[in-house]
Amino acid sequence: MMIGSINIAVLLAALMVAATPILLAAIGELVVEKAGVLNLGVEGMMIMGACVGFIIAVNTGSPLIGFMGAALGGMGLSLLFALLTQALMTNQVASGLALTLFGLGFSALLGQKYVGITPPRTPKLDLGPLSEIPFLGRALFSHDIMVYLTIALVAAVWWFLKYARAGMILRAVGENHDAAHALGYHVKRVRVLAIMFGGACAGLGGAYLSLIRVPQWTEGMTVGIGWIALALVVFASWRPWRAMAGAYLFGGVVVLQLNLQAAGVKIPVEYLSMSPYLITIAVLVFISSGKARGSLNAPGSLNRPFHASN
Amino acid sequence: MKKLLTVGVLCAALAAPVLADTTKVGFVYIGPVGDHGWTYTHDLARKAVEAEFGDAVQTSYVENVGYGADAERVMTQMALSGTNLIFATSFGYGPDVNTVAARFPNVAFEHATGYIQEADNVSLYNARFYEGRAVIGHIAGRMTQTNKVGYIASFPIPEVIMGINSAYLHAKAVNPDVEFNVVWVYSWYDPAQEAAAAEALIEQGADVLMQHTDSTAPLTVAQDAGIMAFGQASDMSAFAPESHLTGITDVWAPYYIDRVRAVKEGTWKAGNVWHGIVDGMVGFAPMSERIPEDVRAEAEGMIAAIAAGEYHPFTGPINKQDGTPWLAEGETAPDGDLLSKDFYVEGITSDIPN
Hints:
The structure holds 2 protein chains of 2 kinds.
Chain A: E1 2-3, E2 6-7, H1 8-34, H2 42-60, H3 63-87, H4 92-110, H5 136-140, H6 145-163, H7 165-175, H8 177-182, H9 187-213, H10 225-235, H11 240-262, H12 269-288, H13 292-296
Antiparallel strand pairs in A: 1-2
Helix pairs in contact in A: 1-6, 1-9, 1-10, 1-11, 2-3, 2-4, 2-9, 2-10, 3-4, 3-9, 6-7, 7-9, 10-11, 10-12, 11-12
Chain B: H1 2-19, E1 23-28, H2 38-53, E2 57-62, H3 69-80, E3 85-88, H4 94-103, E4 108-112, E5 122-127, H5 129-143, E6 148-153, H6 158-174, E7 179-184, H7 191-203, E8 208-211, H8 217-225, E9 228-233, E10 244-250, H9 253-265, E11 272-275, E12 282-284, H10 293-307, E13 318-319, E14 325-327, H11 335-339
Parallel strand pairs in B: 1-2, 1-3, 3-4, 4-5, 5-11, 6-7, 6-8, 8-9, 9-10
Antiparallel strand pairs in B: 10-12, 13-14
C-alpha cells in the first residue's frame, strides 16, 4: 500500500520504532503517577539508562545484559528521588527537575570514555513465516524484541492496575493516601516501589535509544524525549492503552513529517516538527492547573506529600 | 555573603593582570564536547591551544550553553574571573557576545559564524564550508547509482542553504539526472530524529546521504542499509567504516592559536574573517577506498583549484530556483550574497521552509 511514494508498511514499522522509547518511559511514569507521585526526572533517568546500558552492553558484549543494566541504572537514580521525596519529604517537582539535571550531568561524566564506540547490535527478532506476510510482515513483524516486550509491558501494566490486588492497592494509595494509610497499607513502601518501577522503565527507554535506535552513546542524546513521555501520561489520562496510542501518535507525527519531506510533499514542516512539543507544553500547563485535574481523571493524591501523622 | 563573594571575585579579577604570565582563554559551547560534530571540533582546537602554549595558557570551557541569558551569564562569569579571550562558538550567541563585550572592553571576544559587531573588542570568524560541500557534492554526483542524494538539514538559514546549493550544483555538473531530497530536522543535534530522517530518505531511494547536523546517527543508519554517506565536522569514518566516503572537517586550531598568540603579544585587534580550504579551516576526512581512483583525483583537483583561488564554487552562469538569473557567465558570488542567501539554485525541486 502506498500514499504517493511513501510505503505505508515501512511508515508503520518506523513509527513503532520511534514510539518505543517514549512508550517505555511513559508506561513507567504512568505507574508512578498512579501511586500519587509526580516524578519530573524521567529525562534524567532515561539518559542514565542510555548511558549505563551502553557501558554494560559494550563491556559484556551482550545488548540483553545492557538492557538489564539500563533498568538498574534508571532504578538507581529513581531511588535517589525516592529518598528525597519519600524519606526526606522534599518537594516532588523540584526534586524531579533536579533529578533530570543530575542525570544529564552524571551520565555525561560516566560516559566520557564511551563516546565514539559502536555497541554490540541487537538483532531483529526472527518471526519466521510471520515476517513473510505481505504488508503486515513488514509493518508489524520485522522488529527487535524490545518493541514487542514494550507492548507486552503495556498489557501487563493494564492488567496489574485493573485486576491485580497489588495494583488496586497502588491505585488506592494514589487516589487517597490518607484513606489507604487508614486501611493499613504502607503508602511509602508502595510509592517507593512504584518509583523504582518508573525508573527501570525510563532506563530501558533510554537504552533503546543508545543500543538500538541510534546506536551510540553521546551526551544528552535523549533530547527531550523524557518530557514528551511525561506529557503523554496526562494526554492518556493515566490509561495504559491510551498511553500506547498516544506514543504511536507522537512517534507517528515525527516519522510522518520526515517521510513527507523526504518524499518531496510540500507541507509546512516547521509546524509539524513543532507539534509534539506544542502539545507537550499545552498538556504540562493543563496538568499544573488545579481545576483541570478532576476532569482529567488524575490520581487524587498526585504530587501531594504524605506524612503518616496527618 | 553574596556581596562578599562578588568582592572576592572582583579582587581576583583585578589581581589577575598583575600575576598574569598565563593567558586565560574561555570557550563557550552550544553542545556537548562529545558530540563528535561541531562542538567536538572546537574542543579539539582548544586542546591544540593548550598543547601549543603549555603553561603559558590556561583554558576553560562551558558546554551546553543556551542562547540569551544563559550565554550572557557564562561569559560574564568568565570575564569576571580574569579571562583574557573568549571564544563564543555558535551563531546564536551574537547579541550576548556584544552585550558582554561592551561591559568588559579589556576582554577580547571571538564569535564564530556571527554577523553582529557592535563593540570594538568583538571579532568574527567563519569558515567557507561551501567549498567543502562543492567537493563532496561532486563525489556524490559521481557515486550515486539511484541518482538520488538525501540531505539532512538543520535550520533554513543562509549557511545551510548555501551548503545545499553548493553540493547540488557540483553533483548536477557531473550527473545531470541527480536529484536532491532535503529533510529539515529543525535541530543541530538530535540523534534519534536524524536517524529517522536518514531512514526516510533511504526509503525514498537515496543511496548517498549528506548531513548538516552534528550527530553520527545518520552514518550508522547508512552503514546498516549498505548505502554511502558523508560525515560532518570531524572524521566520522569509525562509525560507518564501509559507508563513510569522506566528510568536511572543521579545523579551528590554526586560527585559535593565532588569536591566542595575538592576545599574549598584545597585538590582538578585532577582525572579521571567512577562512576556507586555503587557510586550512576547511579540511577533509580521509577519502574512502570505495571512491574510485578517477573520482578521487577529480575531487583532489577541485580541492587544489579552490585552494589556489583558481576556482570559486559559485561561478556563473547560475540561475535561481525560479529561473531568474543570479550569476552571469564567469561571475562569482559576492560574499554578501552568500551570507544572506535565502533561495535555492535552479534544479532543486523542493521549497525552503519559511
